[in-house]
Amino acid sequence: MSPADLDPTRFRASLRALRLGQSFEYLPSCASTNDEVAARAMAGAEEGLLVVAGEQTAGRGRRGRVWQSPANQNLTFSMLLRPALPAQLVAPMTLLAGAALAASLAGLGFSPRLKWPNDVLLDTRAGPSKVAGILTEMASEAGRVRHVVLGVGINVNTHAFPGELATRATSLCLARGQHVDRGEVLAAFVNAFEPIYYDFVAHGPSAALAKWNDHALLGQICSVERNGQPTQGVAEGVDVSGALLVRTAAGEVISVHAGEVNWL
């Protein structure tokens, strides 16, 4: 049985998306929703399948990090996408999801900011703190996309975080000062993501990436690794490939496609 705020019937009543999220599956507990969706993709599941977990026991984030997911507090879900695109054009998908998540949270009264490439932040007394993360994983064949698994983890109703996370993470509940309906957050995201996703498939990422820039943490000094050496500069935005554009002190604009970006 799904909890009341993630009841499939109640969720679909709030869903305006025509395809994404129409197939909805709730799992009380699983190792990883990304793994669950990937297995269903290999078995022939259709685009738009949405798997939501009450608890993840082996959730993961970018670069192999662990994603904390205590039971029945937060929102962890993965969606199956099958964009008819060459594999090399899929890189901006994480940023598209970030743009949609920021827009949906703003519509619910929050003030999110996006940190390249996959973090969503909220301002706290300790400074900008992470409230959500995005992980996209792709399978391809002969240079074409077979499927993309879009995974999202949102700290919704956690009241306290362990250890060093206490100064680096926050939740929607802490920001609002009261319990937040997870189904409302989920429906808002899917409703925001569907139109920019299909626009991306049809016309490329420019429009969606402009929306990412609208919410992005920009104008900040950061350090990036380039040719094995750290380089400092000011983050100015992203390009159509999804790369972060950083202007160095010498005035050169460099494109960061991968690796770690440290904000100073």
**Residues in helices, as a percent range:** 25-40%
Q: What integer is the average pLDDT?
A: 91
Q: What CATH architecture of the largest domain do you see?
A: 2-Layer Sandwich
CATH class descriptor of the largest domain: Alpha Beta
The helix/strand series, from N terminus to C terminus, equals: HEHEEHEEEEHHHEEEEE
Unreliable residue stretches: none
Q: Which structural category fits the helices and strands?
A: alpha+beta
CATH topology of the largest domain: BirA Bifunctional Protein, domain 2
CATH superfamily of the largest domain: Bira Bifunctional Protein, Domain 2
- CA radius of gyration is 18 Å
The tally of structural domains comes to 2
| Sheet with most strands | 7 strands, mixed
In order across it, which strands form the biggest sheet? Answer: 1-2-3-7-6-5-4
Number of helices: 6
- Indicate the proportion of strand residues: 25-35%
Shape: globular
The total beta strand count reads 12
Distance from N terminus to C terminus (CA atoms, Å) equals 46 Å
